[in-house]
């Protein structure tokens, strides 16, 4: 099972708030078999404790520490928002849902952070015209 596929990507999503964006990102992880539905609730719970906004228009919601046992396989989901959504006083346009087994989240977080911290790459991600194009950007950037 791949960490990211076209099935775990949504482009130009319209959401009412950050919780709807998190549920969307979480549901993609559920549908791909990475996590059970209960993990999505843990992603919401985690956001209520502390914002998962990382800067530069990126939020990276994930479950609470006690939800690690729910994760069946490592995966990410990518939701590019049509409009900015408030994440704890910051505006996000890119939401990356994260579920990682064991310590894999550290390596995954670091390669994702490098990719999205590059302004050109972030611009390419936000303007990707297809799921396949977005998948290629992530595959190239996370090698």
Give an overview in words.
This protein is α/β, with parallel strands linked by helices and 143 residues long. It is 42% helix and 23% strand. The protein is built from 5 helices and 5 strands, in the order E-H-H-E-E-E-E-H-H-H. A 5-stranded mixed sheet has the order 1-4-5-3-2. The two termini are 17 Å apart.
Please provide a brief summary of the model.
The protein has 143 residues and is α/β, with parallel strands linked by helices. The protein has helices spanning 18-31, 37-49, 104-117, 119-126, 131-141; strands spanning 9-13, 53-55, 58-59, 75-87, 90-99.
Number of helices: 5
Q: Averaged pLDDT, please?
A: 93
Q: How many individual β-strands?
A: 5
The portion of residues forming beta strands comes to: 15-25%
Record the strand order, biggest sheet: 1-4-5-3-2
* Secondary-structure element string: EHHEEEEHHH
Descriptive key words:
143 residues, five-stranded mixed beta sheet, 5 strands, alpha/beta, 23% strand, 5 helices, globular
Question: How do the strands and helices of this protein lay out in sequence?
Answer:
Blueprint: E1 9-13, H1 18-31, H2 37-49, E2 53-55, E3 58-59, E4 75-87, E5 90-99, H3 104-117, H4 119-126, H5 131-141
Helix pairs in contact: 1-2
């Amino acid at each position: 099972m791949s960490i990211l596929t076209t099935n775990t990507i949504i482009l130009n999503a319209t959401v009412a708030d950050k919780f709807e964006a998190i549920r969307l990102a979480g549901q993609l992880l559920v549908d791909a078999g990475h996590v059970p539905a209960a993990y999505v609730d843990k992603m919401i719970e985690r956001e209520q404790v502390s914002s998962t906004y990382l800067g530069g228009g990126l939020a990276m919601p994930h479950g609470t520490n006690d939800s690690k046992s729910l994760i069946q396989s490592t995966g990410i989901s990518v939701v590019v928002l049509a409009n900015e959504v408030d994440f704890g006083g910051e505006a996000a346009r890119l939401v990356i849902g994260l579920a990682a087994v064991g310590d894999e989240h550290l390596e995954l977080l670091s390669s994702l952070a490098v990719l999205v911290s590059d302004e050109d790459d972030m611009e390419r991600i936000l303007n990707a015209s297809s799921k396949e194009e977005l998948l290629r950007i992530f595959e190239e950037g996370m090698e």
